[in-house]
Automatic annotation (TrEMBL):
Name of the protein described by the UniProt record: Tetratricopeptide repeat protein
Lineage: Bacteria, Pseudomonadati, Pseudomonadota, Alphaproteobacteria, Sphingomonadales
Organism for this UniProt entry: Sphingomonas piscis
InterPro entries the record matches: TPR-like_helical_dom_sf (IPR011990)
Length: 522
């Protein structure tokens, strides 16, 4: 679905929720405004649209329960009415009442009904921003099956963990810890403890969950160590335990966890270990047809790991840069062969970063540098097409910011109207990045972007083709003032002083420009 389609679906859900559950939406809005009084209208709108989507899913689950043949339809209908009125406590009370009616029925069919009720209560708890209660409900749902069918209990925990994990990848408030706890419950079951294959697959999933939990988590170090530990366990199994595709995934998972930890802790050992595991995965992907689709993932991750090693060992910078570029270019080829658009987009952006840096090499001629920057610009644009802002906001924002930097740099080597065109495009990309990295949630990045926008307007004001230089200087100064204010609030003294210095310089340059335009008659 295209970006516009996702937005249309989100607005449809919010419109439907306002019509059928206005009290719920208004209550959610009040709760949001109370907990985040300084939030922007855009954040409130995003929060309410997410709530509307959760409400729609919960209502669908209630409707599915109503269609099941048991003697609680009236209660389910009352729960639907309570949901529409925004009474989430009443919803839980009614669902608990329906659950109690089935408590004494000891057939598996009855247990499935009880589990469905508990899962729905868990979803309602997530909707009410109570992940701890949701976790308790999800665990209870799985426990219903334990005396009758342990395999079904494990399948329930796995499905719920996957659902929470996927939702957290795109959520403003990730709940990875819920998925981690559910997977830990699976690890305690006899089915997993006595089965090396299932244990390895579970460890792979646990590593992935903890790796994502480490990004933006207060428990970063613990999650990184857990990610490496579980991922390594997934690879340390007897040959033949996993099929070739699963083995390649396990080595890539371990490599990515090591790369993340090594990058954050500046550990050469972790990076070297990451590269070694990726080379193992490459051998599998090349030699086994079933694992071939993982080749693009291997190449892209290997290029990224080489760049981290380059950052930590600058003495071999140029050689490693070319090695990383070759890996990213191979990732583009592999992803085209196996139709993996997300890897293709990421690889395109990675290639563009290296091309933009290469364009600064002193030994190159100016036409060669120009062409490298143009290639970088087109690569960023291609990558952005695979990063819809509604699905991958951070990637979209990062790519727009980096694209803006290359456009700005390219403009400085152009003349006349062409320079003005590239500057205008740079400003547009900076502004799109600022829409993603809003001041409320990403104050430092927002301020840094505004410094860049101010610099772009200042340069535009000094072009011979610029008609209204005064307006450009004014906008540049305003951008630096806004950036200085935010930096001061963050106690980023050096950045704030840099902005103040630039503001003084721009005032002086602006006054000088006015004098040239309107010379004194005396």
């Amino acid at each position: 679905m295209c970006q516009a389609g996702f937005r249309e679906a989100a607005y449809d859900a919010l419109d439907e929720a306002y019509r059928n559950a206005r009290n719920l939406i208004e209550s959610a809005a009040r709760q949001f405004e109370h907990s985040k009084p300084d939030a922007s209208l855009a954040e409130l709108d995003e929060f309410l649209r997410a709530k509307a989507e959760e409400w729609r899913e919960l209502r669908g689950r209630l409707a599915a329960l109503e269609a099941v043949e048991f003697n609680s339809k009236a209660i389910i209908q009352q729960a639907e009415a309570a949901l529409s009125s925004g009474s989430l406590d009443k919803v839980d009370e009614l669902l608990a009442s329906a659950e109690a009616k089935l408590q004494n029925e000891h057939t598996l069919k009855a247990i499935e009904k009880q589990a469905a009720l508990r899962i729905t209560r868990g979803n309602a708890a997530l909707l009410g921003e109570d992940p701890a209660a949701a976790l308790a409900h999800y665990r209870a749902a799985a426990r219903y099956f334990e005396p009758f069918d342990e395999q079904k209990a494990v399948e329930t925990l796995q499905a719920l963990a996957e659902e929470v994990y996927e939702g957290s990848l795109r959520s403003l408030e990730p709940r990875f810890f819920v998925a981690a706890e559910l997977l830990e419950d699976i690890s305690r079951t006899g089915l997993v403890q006595g089965d090396p294959e299932q244990s390895a697959k579970l460890n792979y999933r646990r590593g992935l969950v903890h790796l994502n939990a480490a990004r933006g988590s207060q428990d970063e170090n613990a999650n990184l160590d857990a990610a490496v530990d579980f991922s390594r366990r997934a690879t340390e199994v007897p040959q033949g335990t996993l099929n070739e595709f699963e083995s390649a995934c396990a080595y890539i998972g371990l490599a990515n966890a090591l790369m993340e930890r090594g990058s954050r802790r500046k550990s050469i050992a972790d990076i070297e270990d990451s590269i070694a595991n990726l080379r193992t995965a490459r051998v599998i992907a090349k030699e086994v047809p079933d694992a071939a689709p993982m080749a693009s993932h291997v190449s892209n991750s290997l290029g990224a790991a080489i760049l981290v090693r380059r950052r930590l060992k600058p003495d071999v910078s140029v050689e490693l840069r070319q090695e990383a570029l070759a890996e990213f270019e191979q990732a583009v080829v592999d992803s085209e062969e196996h139709s993996t658009p997300e890897v293709w987009g990421a690889a395109k952006v990675n290639v563009s970063r290296i091309l933009a840096e290469s364009a600064r090499d002193a030994e190159l001629s100016e036409p060669e540098r120009d062409f490298l920057r143009i290639r970088a610009i087109t690569g960023y644009q291609a990558g952005i097409e695979t990063y819809p802002v509604t699905l991958f906001p951070d990637r979209f924002g990062d790519a727009q910011f980096e694209l803006a930097g290359v456009l700005f740099e390219h403009s400085t080597f152009q003349q006349g109207q062409l320079s003005e065109i590239y500057l205008a495009r740079a400003i547009q990309s900076y502004q799109m990045a600022a829409q993603v990295f809003e001041v409320e949630r990403h104050p430092y990045r927002w301020a840094a972007i505004h410094m860049c926008v101010g610099s772009a307007f200042a340069r535009h004001a000094q072009l011979e083709t610029t008609f209204d230089k005064t307006s450009d200087f004014k906008q540049a100064i305003t951008c630096y003032e806004e950036a200085a204010r935010v930096f001061a609030e963050l106690n980023s003294t050096e950045e704030a002083l840099r902005c103040e210095s630039e503001i003084k310089r721009l005032h002086a340059v602006s006054e000088a420009a006015k004098s040239e335009t309107h010379p004194s008659t005396y």
